[in-house]
Each structure stands twice: as C-alpha cells, then as structure tokens.
Amino acid sequence: MQEAEPTPEKTTEESPEIEEQVVVEKEGPPESLEDLRERMETGFGSIEDDDFTRLAEDEKEDPDRLLELLALQKEYHQRTYESLIQELGYDPKTKLMTRPMIEKSLRGAFDLTREDPSQRLVIIMSDLDFLSEANRTPEGHDGGDRLIMRYAELLRQVYGESTDMIGRWYEGDEFMVAIKCSIEEAARLEEELGQRMKEEKVEIARRPFQLSATSRMTELDPKKDLDEQWKELSKQIEGFKVERDRRIGRER
C-alpha cells in the first residue's frame, strides 16, 4: 500500500503594512524659499504678505532666487484675488456674476415684477460661437479664454449702463443678462451688441476669430413660474446651437 505524500504546509505571507501618510500643516511662517514653494504647491501651511518681504532680505544676494520669490509672490496675490472675487459672487476670469449670484439677483428682480405689474424684466441667454474651435488651436484654452473675456467685455460695455445683472451662466460659453426694460429696448441693445461683434476679431494662434454668439431673449411673465420660463429659454438656445453647429460644419 503506497503511502500518501505529506501535504505541504500552507504558509500565509503577511502583507506589508501600508504606512498612511499624513500631511501635517506646518506651523509658523515659512523658513526658506523652498519651504514657501512647498506650501504654495501643497496648500498646507500659512503664508502672509510679510513672508515675501522677509525672505527677500535673505535672498537679495542671489538674483535667480529673488526672481523666483517675486514670481511666487505674484502667483500668491493672484490666487488671493481670485478667491476673494469668487467669494463675492463674481467669475475671476470675466469679472461677471457667477450663476448663483445672478440667479439670486434675478429672483429678487422677478419678485418685484410680481408685486408691481408695471415693472418689466427681460432675460437674454447667449452661447458664444467658435469656443471649441478656439480651444483646439495650438494655444489651447488660453486662446478660448481670450474669446470669452472679449465677449464679456462687450456685454459690460453694451448692457452695463442699464443693468448690473450680467453673468456667466456656466463656466463655459453660456452667459445671461437680466435687464429691467421692455422687450423692444432689450432688442435694441441686442442689436447694438451684434453690430459691435461684427467689428470684432480676436487673433488666436495667428488666426482671426470672428466674435459672435447665439442668443435668445424673453420678457418674463410675472404670472408664470420663473424656473419654467428660463428652462424654456434654455431649450430654445439648445435648438439654435444645434442648427448653428450644423451650419458651421457645412461651411467648413
């Protein structure tokens, strides 16, 4: 009778313990240029305006390090400014209202039209043309951003004297203007904007981009629901955008 071979003992390998890395926020002011750079890259550790002045004294004998410190100071101020602008309800890129801010202002203005039927309120929604094409140039989104910022500037120039409710509806290419006026007056301003855009070309990657936008407007009815009215306007804009994209495709 053949003896059964012994079953080899199973050995269980202990999996190495994974050390959990905990980033501890540094206390006190940055001690060096490297410490300052690390705090800005990671977001951990406090930074104050005075830190740049103090570190500049340490680095004044080395021009290259001093230049790097000045560049970090510029970036720090830009971040602080953008953060403050966003807290106030404005888009840092265009200086227009953010969606939550313009929506809040629009609801307040709409409530006034319900209380006073003589008040009239028109909203204009627009979608910037050629943004995707501008983003696909060698300049990438920097080129598209120039298109956005120039359009935002024109919106302020044309509508700014009549309303402060001018906003970037989403972070992309959609904008909204709410203005207390008749539909006829809003149409006149929209026509002025169209004429101004015809004269505008933005050079991106050595190529002129015609500034244009697909837009639609409506005078709000105080007897109807506000959300339903701008949803309907959004649907109309989407329909116009589809037709616009087909037309642009045929022209290429």
Describe the model.
There is one protein chain. The chain contains eight helices and six strands. Strand 4 and strand 5 form a beta hairpin. The model is unreliable at 18-23 (pLDDT under 50). It folds into two domains: 33-87; 99-251, Alpha-Beta Plaits (2-Layer Sandwich). By secondary structure, it is of the alpha+beta class.
Task: Chart the SSEs and their pairings.
Blueprint: H1 33-42, H2 49-59, H3 63-87, H4 99-115, E1 122-128, H5 131-135, H6 141-159, E2 165-168, E3 174-179, H7 183-198, E4 201-204, E5 207-210, E6 213-219, H8 226-251
Antiparallel strand pairs: 1-3, 1-6, 2-3, 4-5
Helix pairs in contact: 2-3, 6-7
Task: Pick out its properties.
252 residues, alpha+beta, Alpha-Beta Plaits, 2 domains, four-stranded antiparallel beta sheet, two-stranded antiparallel sheet, 8 helices, 51% helix, elongated
